[in-house]
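Re: export button greyed out
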Amino acid sequence: DGGITQSPKYLFRKEGQNVTLSCEQNLNHDAMYWYRQDPGQGLRLIYYSQIVNDFQKGDIAEGYSVSREKKESFPLTVTSAQKNPTAFYLCASSRDSQYEKLFFGSGTQLSVL
Amino acid sequence: AQSVAQPEDQVNVAEGNPLTVKCTYSVSGNPYLFWYVQYPNRGLQFLLKYITGDNLVKGSYGFEAEFNKSQTSFHLKKPSALVSDSALYFCAVRDDQAGTALIFGKGTTLSVSS
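Workaround output, generated via the alternate export path:
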């Protein structure tokens, strides 16, 4: 089945540690996105990529980094510079068009130990 | 800059009654508008979208939304609510002249009682 796979489902980070969240899609979509979800704040855009080897910062990119070396993969690294990383992280993809809908993964819950 | 607002944190409705979840937006150009639903600990599922054309858009699970350009609104509606409609609903907008990604509202929790 086609879709978006996020892993792991749950992730724990220690102080000063970088962690990487995986996002893989087999929908042959050009565009991929990372959103952060906090209770009462909705979804906030972290980074997005419209094509391989290119990506743009969203509204809350500080403390995060991404790469887009393959069309299928868009991993998100939460660095030690992100002081409040506890949140639910959602990855999405879409065909490269402004009016195309997003397909979402099932999310990763990141918590700080 | 583009933005979207959902003025109600929670909407409560009895099963069988009509429901409305409100959304207003602000863009510089023309809006592309979307509604998504999220069930607990899951990703978001697409319900419907407005790009152009008829102001009344029909989507999944019997939901519909009405685009009102003068009021910059895109309210989600359903004629008869089901208990299974209880979930978190997000409105989202993209500005056709901004070239950015989809921007989401803060979400509205819909609670349907039996």
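The mean pLDDT of chain B is 93. The button fix ships in the next patch.
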